[in-house]
Specification:
Elements (H helix, E strand, L loop, with lengths): L2 H10 L3 H12 L2 H17 L9 H19 L32 H19 L3 H12 L4 H8 L3 H21 L8 H5 L2
Helix pairs in contact: 2-3, 2-4, 2-6, 3-4, 4-7, 5-8, 6-8, 7-8
Length: about 190
């Protein structure tokens, strides 16, 4: 193993989980995500000498993003996606993705937590890829707006507007799917 290979492994391997996570959310298929990450790693290795002083994580995730969009174009996956409308972006607050695990060993609470997780996953999967990627990068990978802008190749203002739009759509989807209140719950709450 030569020095370049060792340097690449040191820089890239710690970020493979994030790379796969982004690819899985964008492509919505485990096998395609694995293929995209593999393709991205080959590209990243080929162009590793271009990485100068920058953080390897956003650099690698940008390559993964591009590999995913290439795969979507090849499979014509984008044709059935909801179009992103920049004019609809507003100043929505955070959607508060994810919930804390239930305290104790309450099976009902654990079931509700899993059900909420599935609802959130379904709502994220329904987002158009440009919105899905910013949500995944910000809320799941905890990247800064600057890093997301670098990865997606868009201005920070567009990152913020896409996040706002994605959060609003998620909030709307999760409110529409909210489980009905149990009978009598409203009566007890008003006492």
């Amino acid at each position: 193993m030569n020095d370049r290979t060792r340097q690449f492994e040191t820089a890239a391997l710690p970020h493979l989980h994030a790379a796969y996570n982004l690819a899985r959310w964008l492509l919505r298929d485990d096998a395609q995500a694995e293929d995209a990450v593999q393709e991205a790693c080959l590209r990243a290795f080929r162009f590793f000498d271009d990485l100068r002083g920058a953080s390897a994580r956003p650099w690698l995730l940008g390559i993964v993003r591009n590999a995913c969009y290439d795969a979507m174009r090849q499979s014509r996956h984008l044709a059935d996606q909801v179009a992103f409308d920049e004019s609809q972006d507003g100043g929505a607050e955070d959607a508060g993705l994810g919930a804390a695990p239930p305290a104790g060993g309450d099976p009902a609470a654990a079931w509700e937590q899993r059900a909420l997780g599935r609802r959130i996953d379904t709502a994220i999967e329904a987002l158009a890829p440009p919105l899905r990627e910013v949500i995944v990068l910000r809320e799941m990978e905890d990247l800064s707006y600057e890093d997301i802008a670098r990865i997606a190749g868009i201005p920070i203002g567009t990152v913020m507007s896409r996040l706002s739009r994605a959060r609003a759509l998620l909030r709307h989807a999760l409110q529409d799917e909210a489980p009905p209140a149990t009978p009598g719950a409203h009566r007890d709450a008003t006492r």
